[in-house]
Amino acid sequence: LEYPKNTAKTDFYPIYGIWEIGEIEGYETAYSVELNGRGSYPFDANGQIVISATEIPLEATVTYSDRAGTEQINKSVAVTITANRAIKDIEGWTRVSDSSLEKVYSDNGSYQVTIEDTKGNTLEVAYEVKGIEKVTPTAVFSQDITEWTQQNVTVTMTASIDCETPEGWTKVDAKTFTKIFENNGSYNVTLTSIAGAVNDQLTVEIKNIDREAPAIQYDAIGAAGGYNRTLEVNEGAEYSYEELVSMFTRPEWVQDNSGTAVFTVDTWGVENGLDGYAPFNSKEPGSYKLRFYAIDAAGNTSTFDVFVTVARKILIEFEPKQEEPETAVEPQKAPEQEEPETAVEPQKAPEQEELKTAQSFQKEK
């Protein structure tokens, strides 16, 4: 060996092994010698190493989103093809990795697709999607409040199968959704299953929201004289609240959209008096004020007042009429013969004293 000038001379060692050989994608590399303890492939006794690269066939496996593509009732199935090396894109498929592609199917059937690696090698892959059953979803509705209420009502919809979240509803899980309603009404719901089956015939009915006060028929009360009442002093037990309602109200004096309104008496007013009036006492003559509420099942109320006068009894006694005894009727006599008329003498003027006496008597009388 000749070395350039001014360079150090080094010992020369002959090549005794191959330290590294790069792998070729798509090929399997084999060596004719074993890898030694120093991590290299030594030459054999003949000073040779035989390296062979055998092409690996393009292979692929098919997997499904769940249960190997079977029993996917009411769902779409995602099919994933995974090759043993990088493959090219396929129209309609979504890339998962260099060697994997995925596609979603919503119908059962037998399918095939051609995959191609980067060297142009191709492979036909056949697969079958089964178990998808597109059943139209149904639903059951329930309310958190079923009685009459002034509050909003929360409705829970429970679907028969896994569904997409309907517009305006809140998802609890794949089959359960909720929504808050502020008013009564009939509301349509469109429910779509994961598999794409649609049911647009669902309806939820809200009927128990009531924020309208009962309508008291004030004119009818006035026409019946219901605002001013007179009672005789009560000599028995004090009237109960129910008796007061019965005495001073009538069912037809109130109308309500829910049909549940009834009258009640203001018990506090009975016990303590209203607006300066004394507590009601049917045993004591006087003037009192009672207040009555028309209240419906949702708690909406309207009121009207009654002014009550408690008066003592006035007894008026009447004497029975006396019957006069019957008088005997005398038989009529035969008419006497008329006597001849006698001349009437003219009356004399009364004396002055007699006239005065008559006038004095008249004055005293």
List the helices and strands and how they pair.
Blueprint: E1 17-18, E2 27-31, E3 41-42, E4 51-55, E5 60-64, E6 77-83, E7 94-97, E8 100-105, E9 109-116, E10 122-129, E11 139-143, E12 153-159, E13 170-173, E14 176-181, E15 185-192, E16 198-206, E17 215-216, H1 218-223, E18 228-232, H2 241-248, E19 254-255, E20 262-265, H3 267-272, E21 286-295, E22 301-311, H4 352-364
Parallel strand pairs: 18-22
Antiparallel strand pairs: 1-3, 2-4, 5-6, 6-8, 7-8, 9-10, 11-12, 12-14, 13-14, 15-16, 17-19, 20-21, 21-22
What does this protein structure show overall?
The structure is a single chain. The protein is 9% helix and 34% strand. By secondary structure, the chain is mainly beta. A four-stranded antiparallel beta sheet has the order 5-6-8-7, with no helix packed on it. A four-stranded antiparallel beta sheet has the order 11-12-14-13, with no helix packed on it. A four-stranded mixed beta sheet has the order 18-22-21-20. The N and C termini lie far apart (188 Å). The model is unreliable at 67-72 and 346-362 (pLDDT under 50).
